[in-house]
Amino acid sequence: MDALSTGTLSGAQKEELMDQVKQQIAIANAQELLTKMTEKCFKKCINKPGTSLDSSEQKCIAMCMDRYMDSWNLVSRTYSSRIQRERNNM
Amino acid sequence: MSDIDFPSPKGADSELQDFLIQEKQKAQFQAQIHEFNSFCWDKCIEKPGAKLDSRTETCITNCVERFIDTSLLITNRFAQMLEKGGGMH
């Protein structure tokens, strides 16, 4: 951080820092998705937790994950086009 | 993730600052999508099927749009309340 506050980062150091920031954000994003997905799909697919995940529960979870991603992508598209529209109205 | 405040040290690299501001915005955008998706999923999905049917898709789209409408409406009305000096005592 010392190099950051004194502004003496070399080009290569800066590039490395930027890559690290991007990577950390991507990891945080993936973790959030994973946590939410697990929570939502557990709720939808496991009604009465038994001694193991049976095959219908496993199938449900796989399908739920795929739908959760579909939904995430749809929300993302809807939200970005809304932001675009609001920007054009300003 | 949305609460990061970047310090602006003297002589900080402006390219780096621009980069961080941009990345912060992207992160906030994604955090917002996680939130929308979470509660619209609860509202719109009964049982996850082989694909998102068109009714569910419409529900999710409407859910996001109406939430933003609600947020804007409440923000505006709240601002009016504050202007009138009412509401908060």
TrEMBL record, chain A:
Residues 20-80 form the Tim10-like domain. One of its GO terms (cellular component) is mitochondrial intermembrane space chaperone complex. It is a peripheral membrane protein. It is found in: Mitochondrion inner membrane. Its main location: mitochondrion. Signal peptide: none annotated. Keywords: Chaperone, Disulfide bond, Membrane, Metal-binding, Mitochondrion, Mitochondrion inner membrane, Protein transport, Translocation, Transport, Zinc. The keyword Metal-binding applies. It comes from the Eukaryota. One of its GO terms (biological process) is protein transport. Gene3D superfamilies: Mitochondrial import inner membrane translocase subunit tim13 like domains (1.10.287.810). GO terms for molecular function: metal ion binding. Coiled coil: none annotated. Pfam families: zf-Tim10_DDP. The twin CX3C motif contains 4 conserved Cys residues that form 2 disulfide bonds in the mitochondrial intermembrane space. Belongs to the small Tim family. Heterohexamer. Mitochondrial intermembrane chaperone that participates in the import and insertion of some multi-pass transmembrane proteins into the mitochondrial inner membrane. Also required for the transfer of beta-barrel precursors from the TOM complex to the sorting and assembly machinery (SAM complex) of the outer membrane. Acts as a chaperone-like protein that protects the hydrophobic precursors from aggregation and guide them through the mitochondrial intermembrane space. This is Mitochondrial import inner membrane translocase subunit. The lineage of its organism: Eukaryota, Metazoa, Ecdysozoa, Arthropoda, Hexapoda. The gene is LOC114247335.
From TrEMBL, chain B:
The keyword Nucleotide-binding does not apply. The twin CX3C motif contains 4 conserved Cys residues that form 2 disulfide bonds in the mitochondrial intermembrane space. It is a peripheral membrane protein. Mitochondrial intermembrane chaperone that participates in the import and insertion of some multi-pass transmembrane proteins into the mitochondrial inner membrane. Also required for the transfer of beta-barrel precursors from the TOM complex to the sorting and assembly machinery (SAM complex) of the outer membrane. Acts as a chaperone-like protein that protects the hydrophobic precursors from aggregation and guide them through the mitochondrial intermembrane space. It comes from Bombyx mandarina (Wild silk moth). Keywords: Chaperone, Disulfide bond, Membrane, Mitochondrion, Mitochondrion inner membrane, Protein transport, Translocation, Transport. Belongs to the small Tim family. Heterohexamer. GO terms for cellular component: mitochondrial inner membrane. It is found in: Mitochondrion inner membrane. This is Mitochondrial import inner membrane translocase subunit. GO terms for biological process: protein transport. Residues 19-80 form the Tim10-like domain.
